[in-house]
Specification:
Structural class: mainly alpha
Number of strands: 2
CATH class of the largest domain: Mainly Alpha
CATH topology of the largest domain: Farnesyl Diphosphate Synthase
Helix content: over 70%
Order of helices and strands: EEHHHHHHHHHHHHHH
Shape: globular
Strand order of the largest sheet: 1-2
CATH superfamily of the largest domain: Farnesyl Diphosphate Synthase
Radius of gyration: 20 Å
């Protein structure tokens, strides 16, 4: 079985004969790159700053995470989703073993070994995906925060291992970036999640701001809803600010640049929500390409200045 992208760039598990040597490495890297390019446009844009080897590692991690997530999301019912999640756990065991594996998975195996990424982080990620099978409401923020840790915080930790770090004090900041990005996703995707029967906004905070589920389903934006989103946006921005404090501990200017760009671009979605007057039901907030390019340029200048200061101070 392998991670592959079909002709429509969707991710599937298919049976394939074993491959060997350079062919595995090259083909696996292409598979993972194609998956990342299709599904993670912001990350793919930001990762263009990275050296080729680090890029390939980043795409391999993303490809596994996306493949596992798609298997659960595309399932027709709970039974099939549970089965797909069990397959993902089996494939993860295979990746951390010495048994023969096909191209996409071989690339993932090379990455986790080369960068020393603990298997427990992927176990936590799959546990987070399992939460979506049985939980569609969250009573309070601590309950939601556990979900955010499992589906996004651990990805921040994975990327920290992948980029390399000078001091373990950067790990809490990596968690903050993952948390901030997931909180941003939740705000951007309120309508799409409702269509799937899910509400990630904590129930006690909905009540605090006088917003109920009927209002969300109606797509009604009023002062209460706007104040709720202002509160959520402020929380996410605090996490982005904490995340930035860990960037100097990452090894390599390109790694620091990539993380800075990712945080700024994803944080920019919050500004786009504000520009919509919080009406996330009308259109999906996104950062336009022109703003992405300006953000990239600003981050490049900031990272260069940081590097020059370290060289001279």
């Amino acid at each position: 079985m392998s991670l592959v992208a079909n002709e429509h760039d969707s991710v599937k598990l298919v049976s394939e004969p074993p491959h060997h040597g350079v062919e595995v490495s090259a083909r696996g890297a292409r598979v993972c790159r194609r998956i990342t390019q299709h599904y993670a446009k912001t990350f793919y844009f930001a990762s263009s700053c990275l050296p080729r080897e680090t890029q390939a590692h980043a795409y391999a991690v993303y490809a596994f995470c996306r493949w596992a997530d798609n298997g659960v999301d595309d399932a027709r019912d709970l039974t099939e989703a549970t089965a797909q999640l069990n397959i993902a756990r089996d494939v993860l065991e295979l990746a951390y073993s010495d048994r023969m594996s096909p191209p996409g998975l071989a690339a993932f195996r090379h990455t986790v070994r080369d960068r020393g990424i603990p298997k427990s982080l992927f176990d936590d990620l799959l546990d987070g995906m399992a939460m979506d099978l049985t939980i569609d409401r969250y009573a309070d923020y601590p309950a939601l925060d556990l979900y955010c840790y499992r589906v996004a915080g651990v990805v921040g930790l994975m990327m920290t291992y992948l980029f390399g770090y000078r001091h373990e004090r950067c790990f809490p900041h990596a968690l903050s970036l993952g948390r901030a990005m997931q909180l941003t996703n939740i705000l951007r995707d309120i309508k799409e999640d409702l269509d799937r029967g899910r509400i990630y906004l904590p129930r006690d905070e909905l009540q605090q701001f006088g917003v109920d589920e009927d209002q969300l389903k109606e797509g009604r934006v009023d002062t209460n809803f706007s104040n709720l989103l202002k509160f959520q946006i402020d929380r996410a921005r605090q996490e982005y600010a904490r995340a930035e404090l860990g960037i100097p501990d990452l090894i390599g200017a390109t790694s620091r640049l990539t993380v800075r760009v990712m945080g700024r671009l994803y944080g920019g979605i919050l500004g786009e929500i504000e520009k919509l007057d919080y009406d996330i039901f009308r259109t999906r907030a996104h950062v336009p390409l022109a703003r992405k390019l300006r953000t990239l340029g600003g981050c490049q200048r900031e990272t260069l200045a940081e590097r020059l200061r370290s060289d001279w101070c």
